[in-house]
């Protein structure tokens, strides 16, 4: 039997050279897992302030129901309140007179709830939120109507 030819002229490889080669060849980045955003688990600063408007109370009930689509690891009550507050601020910011706009407000509440619940199963937006794609509730509220609709349908 013939085996591989030995290279008698080659120098022995030092263990430090092997470690250096391993360091330089393994350059693939380690994936960083995003954490669940704090607004899904921590009490909002304004949580203890009572809602002053029947619309806001009713919208909060809608959002709390939609939060049932989220895993139990989040605090659904805190998350619903954070989204309601962000929606209220957003509806004021988007109004040309900078006043609270109930039409914009309710349209967004309905779109958010639909996006979370989904047409036949939980909307894909829920997974993205829980995985940390949206670091604050306003970033969810500012999503376009089209993006929310796609979460509802897909």
- State the helical fraction: 40-55%
The count of β-strands is: 0
String of helices and strands: HHHHHHH
Alpha-carbon distance between the two ends: 63 Å
Low-confidence stretches: 17-26
Q: What can you see in these coordinates?
A:
This protein has 154 residues and is mostly helical. It has one domain (38-153). It has seven helices and no strands. Helix 4 (102-117) packs parallel to helix 7.
Question: Quick recap of the structure?
Answer:
The chain is 51% helix and 0% strand. The protein has 154 residues and is mostly helical. Helix 2 (54-66) packs parallel to helix 4 (102-117), helix 3 (76-93) packs antiparallel against helix 4 (102-117) and helix 4 (102-117) packs parallel to helix 7 (145-153).
How does the SSE layout of this entry go?
Layout: H1 15-25, H2 54-66, H3 76-93, H4 102-117, H5 124-130, H6 137-141, H7 145-153
Question: What are the main properties of this structure?
Answer:
154 residues, mainly alpha, 7 helices
